[in-house]
Design goal:
By secondary structure, the chain is an alpha/beta fold. The protein has a single domain, classed as Rossmann fold. 41% of the residues are buried. Bound molecules: NADP nicotinamide-adenine-dinucleotide phosphate.
């Protein structure tokens, strides 16, 4: 398949690009700093574009089968985070203009403000308040995607991310804001970035999660 990847220079995005190329896909890495892409491959094209401008994105989306995003933006206590929604609005507009309708993007567990009540005290009272501005904007982006009728989107929600390559572990999935065990308690607290990329790519052959947000964990 032909895949346009945003956030290709990021820690998860790099795994996604590598694995996509290994699987025989053709990748267009849409980045702001092309010099940051160190991988070279016959099936990899690196283009510079502005993720907040549909005009800048649309030509790079032409002829692509799918747009995949591993974009990330830092927390902000004072002004709020807007990168997720602003970039997604530009991406969706550009996808419409380029006639691409499949989108796979990542957010996080606990984007919904009240969804963390079953998590550990550390996560609930320390981590979630610290990253709330990011989670809030991810949630707004998820809500925006739900209003798009023409886009076949999937939101992948991982827990914490570990800097590790893909494993062969089975995935646990749940259509919700985290993966619960039988008692409703979140299962695990982190996955390898390589496994998030592996799961995102597995969606290319699986329509189960179209127009859905899926929380993931590994067994
Ligand atoms: N950390 C965790 O435990 C955790 C848990 C769950 C979910 N998440 C979320 O998962 C996603 C991926 O995380 P990660 O750690 O792999 O991300 P990351 O390493 O921080 O990478 C972020 C990517 O976004 C790109 N980006 C940011 N601002 C941009 C801009 N203005 N224009 C163009 N590109 C821009 C970066 O490009 P540059 O290289 O040019 O900066 C980079 O490619 C993030 O949304 C993160 O919040 C994280």
């Amino acid at each position: 398949m032909k895949i346009a990847v945003l956030g290709a220079t990021g820690q998860t995005g790099q795994h996604l690009v590598q694995q996509a190329l290994q699987q025989g896909h053709t990748v267009t890495a849409v980045v702001r700093s092309p010099e940051k892409v160190t991988v070279q491959h016959d099936n990899l094209k690196v283009v510079k574009a502005n993720i907040f401008s549909s005009d800048s994105l649309k030509d790079n989306f032409k002829d692509q089968d799918v747009v995949m995003s591993c974009l990330g933006f830092p927390t902000s206590f004072f002004s709020g985070v807007t990168g997720y929604t602003l970039s997604m609005h530009a991406m969706v507009k550009a996808m419409r203009e380029a006639k691409v309708n499949r989108l796979i993007t990542m957010t996080s567990w606990y984007t919904e403000p009240n969804s963390g009540t079953q998590s550990s005290y550390m996560i609930r009272f320390l981590l979630l308040p610290m990253i709330r501005s990011v989670l809030t904007n991810m949630f707004q982006m998820e809500q925006f995607l739900q209003t798009t009728n023409d886009i076949e989107w999937t939101v992948v929600r991982p827990p914490g991310l570990r800097n590790q390559p893909a494993s062969a572990l089975d995935f646990l999935t749940h259509e919700g804001y985290f993966v619960p065990d039988n008692s409703g308690i979140p299962v695990g607290s982190a996955v390898a970035r390589g496994d998030v990329a592996r799961f995102m790519l597995s969606l290319l052959n699986n329509n189960t999660w179209i127009k859905k947000a899926v929380a993931i964990a590994t067994k």
